[in-house]
Design goal:
- By secondary structure, the protein is mainly β.
- The chain is built from one helix and eleven strands.
- It has one domain: Fimbrial-type adhesion domain (Immunoglobulin-like, Sandwich).
- The strands form three sheets. Strands 1, 2, 3, 7, 8 and 10 form a six-stranded antiparallel sheet that branches. Strands 9-4-11 form a three-stranded antiparallel sheet, with no helix packed on it.
- A hairpin with a 2-residue loop joins strand 5 and strand 6.
Length: 163
C-alpha cells in the first residue's frame, strides 16, 4: 500500500511537472500591419480650349462671353495667374507677322477691371482646397484703323501656384 501511495504520488508529481513545462498550443493568433501611402501636393488648371471674340469693330472694345477656368488643389492657399504664352509678342493678338496695336485684356475672379496680358495678372487667390470653378473670366480686344485685316489670335497661359 505504501508502495501504491508512493507510485501515485510520483505519477501525480510527474503530471504536475509536465503540465507546467509543456506550453499550451494556441489555435489562433494576432498581428498588425501598418499600411502607408502619400498624397503628393497637386494643383491642376483647366481652361477653355478656345474663346471667340467674333468680328472686332474699329475703336470699340469687343468682350468675350464669360469663360470658366477651374482650379483643383489639395492644399489651402493657391493663386491663379494669366499671361500670354511667351510666344505672342507683348500680349498682343497676331496673325503671323501682323500684330494688333492694342494689348489683349483679361478680367475675372478677384480682378474686377480689365488688365493687359503683357504681364502676369493675378485673377484669383483662394484660401480653400478642393475644386474651384472661376466662371467670370472675360477677354477683351480693341482693334484700330491701323490694324491689318486678318484672323488674329493669342495663346493665354493660366498658371496655378500653391502658396
Amino acid at each position: 500500500m505504501k508502495r501504491t501511495v508512493i507510485i501515485l504520488s510520483l505519477i501525480f508529481a510527474l503530471a504536475i511537472a509536465l503540465s507546467v513545462s509543456i506550453p499550451t498550443l494556441a489555435l489562433d493568433g494576432t498581428d498588425t500591419t501598418t499600411v502607408t501611402g502619400s498624397v503628393p501636393l497637386t494643383i491642376t488648371v483647366t481652361a477653355p480650349a478656345t474663346v471667340a471674340l467674333e468680328t472686332l469693330t474699329i475703336d470699340t472694345p469687343k468682350e468675350s462671353a464669360a469663360q470658366t477656368v477651374t482650379v483643383a488643389c489639395n492644399k489651402a492657399g493657391w493663386t491663379l495667374t494669366a499671361i500670354e504664352d511667351g510666344v505672342t509678342p507683348d500680349g498682343k493678338m497676331n496673325a503671323g507677322s501682323d500684330i494688333l496695336t492694342n494689348v489683349c485684356q483679361i478680367k475675372g475672379g478677384d480682378q474686377a477691371t480689365y488688365v493687359g496680358l503683357d504681364a502676369a495678372r493675378t485673377l484669383e487667390t483662394s484660401g480653400s482646397k478642393g475644386t474651384t470653378p472661376i466662371s467670370t473670366i472675360y477677354f477683351a480686344q480693341t482693334a484700330t484703323a491701323a490694324d491689318t485685316a486678318g484672323d488674329y489670335s493669342i495663346t493665354v497661359l493660366f498658371t496655378g501656384t500653391i502658396n
